[in-house]
Design brief:
Elements lengths: L14 H24 L10 H5 L1 H21 L2
Helix pairs in contact: 1-3
């Protein structure tokens, strides 16, 4: 029977990649501070439409900017 040999090549993260991750985490934390302190909170089950809308920028950043950026980064490694 033929043996299938697979090779995995791992490259360490570059300094730019590490800086981008740190910047993304800091941006997410600052967005949470902004939404919780200055925009009066985040709540999906509320009678206040502003609190419901505050979920939108948080999910847009985390989902579309931060996570898709990671997917694009790993696609080209």
């Amino acid at each position: 029977m033929d043996t299938i040999v697979t090779h995995r090549y791992y490259r360490p993260a570059s300094r730019i990649t590490i800086f981008a991750y740190i910047f993304g985490v800091i941006a997410a934390i600052l967005m949470l501070v902004w939404l919780l302190h200055y925009r009066e909170g985040v709540d999906l089950d509320s009678y206040d439409p502003n609190k419901i809308f505050n979920v939108h920028p948080l999910l847009m950043f985390l989902g579309l900017v931060f996570l898709s950026g990671q997917g694009i980064h790993y696609r080209y490694i």
